[in-house]
# Entry
Amino acid sequence: MSEKMIALVTGANKGIGYEIAAGLGGLGYRVGVGARDETRRETAVGKLRAAGVDAFGVPLDVTDDRSVTEAAELVGRLAGRLDALVNNAGISGEMDPGWVQDPTVLDLEVLRRVVDTNVMGVVRVTNAMLPLLRRSASPRIVNVSSSVGSLTRQADPDIEIGPIMAAYAPSKSFLNAVTVQYARKFAGTDILINAACPGLVATDFTGFQGPRTPEQGAATAIRLATLPDGGPTGSFFEDAGVVPW
# Structure
């Protein structure tokens, strides 16, 4: 079993996920780069290794049960356990101009795909990786969410929360709720689980619109993945602190 701390980051071939992997690697973690696309995954692994990170590729489609099971088996063979799981993979779903998803004309298939990736994918991966996490002395789980999933902020007319996104925003509210249920289940154990908002980051996910860099967007997730024992659990954080549910 590896003496290094072991992390797995889903959707880690680019953007925020890549920077989370790079940041954890810079802290001495051995990092599994979870991604569907083989070429992009191996390119990311090569780039991380060139920067001195102990990285390995993990073929992983979070919407596919078999892929997730095989990913857990691979991490088990290569590392023996898992100390940090960062569920970063996510999609926005098709949007109209201006990032709008109008609930009155929303294609239910779009909603299904978004929920399957952003919520069910997190459950698939988390449950598959739990046996490996339970082998760790200090297991940490981070679900990458978004402040647009905050019902408090969405419902406040005085807060500018962005356009109506009837598939993406509710999927993050759903993810936040699932995070709380896991925290309740893990109460009294060493497993800490929290949600992280990266803010509006300029990546291909946002059409490279946003004031924050991927490195800045990765910071909260890295902090939560490396919490000390006794740290918070079942909470939702951004750089400035706790995000209201």
Summary: The longest helix spans residues 108-133. Helices lie at 15-26, 38-50, 65-79, 108-133, 151-155, 168-185, 214-225.
